[in-house]
Amino acid sequence: MFRGRPKKQRIIKQIPKTGQFSPRGKPGRPDEVILESDEFEAIYMADYQALDQKTAASSMGVSQQTFSRILKKARKSVADSLVGGKIIRIK
């Protein structure tokens, strides 16, 4: 049984040039964090292009509140990876 609203299609304009980032200097096989394509796009627009959330949300075809939620999750994933020495895998 399906619960909740279906996920709205999001517009992704910037395809990542690589599928993952791996830390150096950590012995063994490090854990990994998954960064969804919409999370990558949110970080790209908000942090790299320095767009305000309203403009970025409009570009992705989502509400400002949804964009904010995506961005917060993306930043949490990146921080977890940096602090924990984990691989960032973009899907």
Q: Would you tell me the overall average pLDDT?
A: 86
Overall radius of gyration: 14 Å
- Total strands: the figure is 3
CATH fold description of the domain at 35-90: Arc Repressor Mutant, subunit A
The CATH first-level class of the domain at 35-90 comes to Mainly Alpha
Strand content: 5-15%
Describe this structure in words.
- By secondary structure, this protein is mainly alpha-helical.
- It has a domain at 35-90: Arc Repressor Mutant, subunit A, CATH 1.10.10.
- Helix content is 45%, strand content 11%.
- A three-stranded mixed β-sheet has the order 1-3-2.
- α2 packs across α3.
- The protein is globular and about 40 Å long.
- The mean pLDDT is 86.
SSE layout and pairing:
Blueprint: E1 20-21, E2 32-35, H1 37-48, H2 53-60, H3 64-84, E3 87-90
Parallel strand pairs: 2-3
Antiparallel strand pairs: 1-3
Helix pairs in contact: 1-2, 1-3, 2-3
Give a quick rundown of the structure:
The protein is mainly alpha-helical. It has helices spanning 37-48, 53-60, 64-84, and strands at 20-21, 32-35, 87-90. Strands 1-3-2 form a 3-stranded mixed sheet.
